[in-house]
Amino acid sequence: MEAEVGLLETEPLQGRDEDAVASADFSSMLSEEEKEELKAELVQLEDEITTLRQVLSAKERHLVEIKQKLGMNLMNELKQNFSKSWHDMQTTTAYKKTHETLSHAGQKATAAFSNVGTAISKKFGDMRKSFDTEG
Hints:
The protein is mostly helical. Among the domains are: 28-73; 92-134. Helices cover 79% and strands 0% of the residues. It is elongated and about 120 Å long. 0% of the residues are buried.
């Protein structure tokens, strides 16, 4: 049995559906009174957005002035942010475990290089003794 498509679909709009809705002319469905109300609301919203942008711009200028008075600048903020981030990273368990592992590996590598160096020195010493006794 085929499912009947109801009047109200429950699927979200897809790209082509959104295009169809965007290009549809809904103004013919509205009464003149509704159109006038929407136009008034549109003007009011545009005015509010303009006002909010002006207020935000003024607050951003004030923020910059305060930071300048306090001697804060972009470089100081970047340094502070970097220092905090570096400290936060160093306190993570993953960092601590990695640091311990690499430290232990470094100690082993140092010991291994030391042993190789000692062996090479001993070999050169043996070769020198052998050369001195032959010569």
